[in-house]
Amino acid sequence: MSTTPDPPPPETLLSSSAIGHLLEVRRRLLWWVASLLAIFFALFPFQNRVFDFVATPMLRRLPVGSSMIATSVTSPFMTPLKLTLMTALFLSMPVFLYHLWRFISPALYKSERRMFFPLLVSSVVLFYGGVAFAYFVLFPVAFAFLTSVAPAGVKVMTDINAYLDFVLTIFFAFGLAFEVPVAIVLATWAGFTTPGKLKKLRPYALVGSFVVGMILSPPDVVSMTLLSVPIYLLYEAGMLMARILVPGSRQVDQQREQQQGAP
């Protein structure tokens, strides 16, 4: 006489499910690390060229007879190496985000997947856009200003390690600043705000964008304006994206307007 085996206890099912998720996370992280290492080793022979490219905005605006210097014994080797590693990390982020999307997408509803994927792509494009804006627009103006205000008798010769730290900080800050539309869409989707509320906050957003520009940009009016204006325009773009990507946000604003207009 055959007997039906008892089903495994819930604790065992939960444990096996957790182990499966951890193995999936490990597999996708290994893919990302492999892409990071592949990009790093591909760029390693060209690390000095990578540094020359990043240093070009500063080198073009140094006074005649000046150059960048290395004040540490290991800086001539370690600084380009550090930049190459950060560049590999920067270029491998789409791979990381792709595997993040593949990991969490099965747990999302169809409507959530429809919104999350455009946000994922937008976040990558906007971050890269912020970095490109800093390199091609801000740096030429900022370095021309910074090298022109040196006191008489002071020869501008920037240390390569200090320059790299400054550039990476600006890149990261501008990349995050350009994520304003994504942050607005997420806040709207979570129910913290609506496009109607954000519309009423436009004056504060304009002031806030100039405050952020003053904090993140070099200390001159032109650089501050070059960052503040795009941040405010991205605020406007975020409101438009929220209306398109977040279902029901427009209805919530209409209901609130009707309630406020009711006697």
Question: How does this structure look, described?
Answer:
- The protein is mainly alpha-helical.
- It has a domain of 114 residues.
- It is built from ten helices and no strands.
- It is flat, with a radius of gyration of 25 Å.
Name its key features.
263 residues, single chain, 77% helix, flat, mainly alpha
Topology:
Blueprint: H1 10-43, H2 47-59, H3 75-104, H4 110-148, H5 160-177, H6 180-189, H7 195-200, H8 202-216, H9 221-245, H10 249-261
Concise synopsis of the structure shown:
It contains ten helices and no strands. It is mainly alpha-helical and 263 residues long.
Mean pLDDT: 80
Structural class of the secondary structure composition? mainly alpha
Please report which band the strand proportion falls in: under 5%, 5-15%, 15-25%, 25-35%, 35-45% or over 45%: under 5%
What percentage of residues falls in helices of 4 or more residues?
Answer: over 70%
Distance between termini? 78 Å
Work out the number of β strands: 0
Number of helices: 10
Q: Biggest sheet, open or closed, and with what strands and sense?
A: none
Q: Which radius of gyration do the C-alpha atoms yield?
A: 25 Å
Order of helices and strands: HHHHHHHHHH
Shape: flat
Spans where pLDDT lies below 50 across 5 or more residues: none
